[in-house]
């Protein structure tokens, strides 16, 4: 840092600190350390040289240190003195005026003081690092004969540099949250969060009644969920349906009321055109089905197929782009959420790009409530820990979770099941979903489930010429124990269109494959019947 700039920061810091209503820790020792590092130029050129300016400003700064934090400065008097110290350097004086002249609130004063302190700490850190490296280089380059062991020399150098790995005065990024029990406001905020979870106010509900039961109310913000399935088993369709349901059936509960609530979906596989085609048809089908129920006053789940069959297939047809855009916007923003879809080439991204995108959106004023990644495993594990097979993938899941969790972002991503899981299908195991849950049948890393908060598995089954989507819950960290009977259910595929949610009508899920819908009260038929056909 330039000596003049260093003195400007010192003067500004001491003056701004004197204006605080509550003084707290002063910065005199920090400023004195800064002044000690300033070396006057050896040669003075001209009447108003840099040497004289630096010398005079340093004298003023030292006198301010002597005054202490309780001293009340007369702004005009201080500026007059600084004008004399800067001699004919008008630009330097203008910078000092900008640091002293503006009126600031108590909060702004504190932020300014903290920022200057960090800047000074970083300056000293960089100076010490450079000094240490320069000394080590000179020893290695010119006094090699004095180095008895190169490994020992490197080890000692690393030990000298270790204290500089953490930015002094900065918030420790590893500290996700903390609470001072003596501060009742902080404690009350924590219990408010607990209360919101217990009442369901802060949960993110889905559009299927049975899935909400399985999740014990809904997804919790800050969790990382993985949706496991074999290839071509509706992972994208199911996850995209969930994403739409987040917007349709939840009102944003904000952490920061000044921000805008956002739902973010990043696809590393499908084009946005493919996703948006699904979005439009899903919303249109939902509207038509609701209209059919409303018109016919029908409330039994068995009418589902009949009504779907009586509908025309949803096509864009002659509908204008503007009409479609307005329709989709109206539907997905009805509760106050803003919704963003992205398509990214995974080969050119890493987990850090995901984190950077989230940070960028936060800087734009968004509070992200859910981020859906289709699929996270497609992103290269560049920068992650290398070790035995699967270590890097597991580390990437851990890093993305650790980034999103403290921000209150629900992270949801599908993931392929391993070839071992395919063998279970070939062996016609009667309870495929129950077999794979909690047992590490995951492509790329068998221990991947240890890093996540919740795991869910889906699979398409055929029973008596009808297709069903089976849903199974595995682990769910941090929630009360759920009875096994609620950890699995089946959703019937309609003869046309996607599986439409049932939160607004009778429960269409069945507890057993081919059984009567839970919402109908009918008798359920026997359990598994895979048949000979391969799905």
Short structural summary:
By secondary structure, the chain is α/β, with parallel strands linked by helices.
Topology:
Layout: H1 3-18, H2 28-36, H3 50-67, H4 75-85, H5 90-100, H6 106-142, H7 150-161, H8 184-199, H9 209-214, E1 224-229, H10 235-248, E2 260-267, H11 272-296, H12 303-309, H13 321-332, E3 338-343, H14 351-363, E4 366-374, H15 391-404, E5 410-416, H16 419-426, H17 432-436, E6 454-463, E7 466-476, E8 488-492
Parallel strand pairs: 1-5, 1-6, 2-3, 2-4, 4-5
Antiparallel strand pairs: 6-7, 7-8
Helix pairs in contact: 1-2, 1-3, 1-5, 1-6, 2-3, 4-5, 10-11, 14-15
Structure overview:
With 535 residues, the chain is of the alpha/beta class. It has 17 helices and eight strands. It has an eight-stranded mixed sheet with strand order 3-2-4-5-1-6-7-8, sandwiched between helices. β6 and β7 form a beta hairpin. The C terminus is likely disordered.
Largest sheet properties = 8 strands, mixed
Low-pLDDT segments:
166-176, 522-535
* Rg (C-alpha, Å): 32 Å
What percent strand?
5-15%
Count the helices. How many?
A: 17
Major sheet: arrangement of strands: 3-2-4-5-1-6-7-8
User: Count of DSSP E strands?
Assistant: 8
User: Quick check: average pLDDT?
Assistant: 83
* Portion of residues within helices: 40-55%
Instruction: Please identify the oligomeric state.
Output: single chain
- Give the termini distance in whole angstroms: 67 Å
Name the shape in a single word.
elongated
Alpha-beta content class: alpha/beta
Could you state the order of secondary-structure elements as H and E? Answer: HHHHHHHHHEHEHHHEHEHEHHEEE
């Amino acid at each position: 840092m330039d000596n003049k700039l260093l003195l400007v920061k010192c003067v500004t810091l001491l003056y701004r600190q004197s204006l605080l209503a509550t003084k707290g820790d002063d910065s005199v020792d920090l400023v004195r350390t800064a002044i000690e590092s300033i070396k006057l130029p050896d040669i003075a050129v001209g009447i108003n040289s840099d040497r004289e300016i630096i010398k005079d400003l340093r004298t003023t700064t030292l006198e301010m240190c002597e005054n202490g934090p309780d001293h009340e400065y007369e702004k005009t008097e201080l500026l007059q003195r600084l004008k004399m110290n800067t001699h004919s350097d008008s630009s330097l004086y203008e910078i000092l005026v900008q640091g002293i002249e503006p009126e600031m609130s108590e909060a702004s004063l504190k932020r300014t003081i903290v920022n200057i302190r960090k800047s000074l700490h970083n300056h000293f850190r960089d100076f010490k690092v450079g000094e240490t490296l320069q000394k080590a280089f000179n020893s290695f380059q010119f006094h090699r004969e004095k180095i008895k062991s190169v490994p020992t020399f490197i080890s000692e150098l690393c030990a000298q540099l270790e204290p500089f790995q953490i930015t002094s005065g900065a918030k420790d990024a590893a500290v996700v949250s903390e609470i001072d029990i003596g501060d009742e406001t902080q404690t009350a905020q924590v219990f408010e969060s607990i209360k919101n979870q217990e009442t369901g106010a802060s949960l993110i509900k889905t559009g299927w009644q049975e899935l909400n039961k399985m999740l014990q109310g809904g997804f919790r913000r800050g969790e990382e969920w993985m949706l496991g399935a074999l290839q071509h088993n509706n992972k994208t369709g199911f996850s995209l349906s969930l994403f739409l349901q987040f917007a349709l059936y939840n009102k944003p509960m904000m952490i920061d009321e000044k921000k805008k609530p956002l739902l973010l979906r990043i696809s590393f596989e499908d084009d946005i055109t493919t996703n948006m085609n699904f979005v439009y048809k899903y919303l249109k089908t939902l509207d038509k089905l609701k209209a059919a129920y409303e018109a016919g006053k029908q409330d039994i789940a068995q009418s589902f197929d009949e009504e779907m069959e009586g509908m025309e297939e949803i096509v864009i047809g002659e509908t204008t782009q503007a009409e479609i855009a307005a329709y989709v916007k109206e539907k997905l923003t009805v509760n106050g959420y803003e919704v963003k879809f992205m398509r990214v080439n995974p080969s050119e991204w890493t987990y850090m790009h995901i984190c950077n995108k989230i940070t960028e959106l936060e800087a734009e004023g968004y509070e992200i409530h859910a981020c859906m990644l289709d699929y996270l495993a497609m992103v290269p594990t560049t920068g992650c820990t290398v070790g035995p097979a699967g270590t890097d993938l597991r580390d990437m899941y851990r890093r993305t979770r650790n980034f999103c969790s403290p921000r209150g972002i629900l992270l949801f991503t599908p993931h392929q099941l391993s070839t071992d899981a395919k063998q279970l299908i070939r062996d016609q195991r009667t309870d495929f979903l129950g077999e794979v849950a909690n047992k590490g049948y995951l492509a790329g890393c068998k221990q991947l489930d240890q890093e996540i908060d919740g795991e869910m598995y889906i699979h398409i089954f055929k029973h008596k010429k009808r297709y069903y989507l089976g849903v199974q819950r595995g682990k769910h960290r941090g929630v009360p124990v759920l009875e096994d009977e609620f950890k699995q259910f089946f959703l019937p595929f309609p003869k046309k269109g996607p599986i439409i949610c049932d939160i607004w009508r009778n429960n269409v899920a069945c507890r057993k494959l081919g059984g009567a819908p839970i919402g109908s009260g009918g008798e359920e038929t026997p359990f598994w019947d895979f048949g000979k056909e391969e799905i």
